[in-house]
User: Fold this.
Amino acid sequence: MKLGPVLAVSVTAVSLQVLLLSASARADEHERRAEERRAEDHRAEEHRAEERRAEEHRDMRHEEHPAPRPRPEPPKFQPHPRGIHPRGATVHPHAVRVMKPHIAKFGVHPWRHWAHPEFVRPAYYWDWGHIRQVTCVAEDSYGDQYPVTEETMRGFGLTQMSAVEDDALDRCYEESGGDQSCFIATCSHF
Assistant:
């Protein structure tokens, strides 16, 4: 047998195998890239859906908890006249329950907004630049107290206090079973 035709046949066979392997490798590479594109498209779609859900949540939160109206500057401080407390003595015929404090990030409203009756907001004479946290306590008709503590931020002041007070009122209303007589008992800071 002559060596030339054998070599030609074997070179052709090897070339065919190389071509088949490279075609197979290219097909695998093409399939891998297509899979990566599908995964990237899926991640992008999930990201868009998450953004839509977050936007809907923000819209819903703003609908539930409207932005506070700006409050006017408080008048010059004048102490009240000597004598009894303006609302009378606060005495309950039973032990007052103070619920576990809820610590919230400012701007996050975990309770549904209660359309409470308008009331005169207290004027706070605080050094706003040094305040780290604000706690407001709402009280229901039974005397149970619902404290809400929120972190402050740079620029926090009297105009943001309405949101903290409203959160305490919203918590009182929701956790007391819809007691319409919830009111702000006190607010403090540190």
User: Anything to note?
Assistant: DSSP finds two helices and four strands in the chain. Residues 102-189 form one domain. The mean pLDDT is 78. The chain has two domains: 1-64, 102-189.
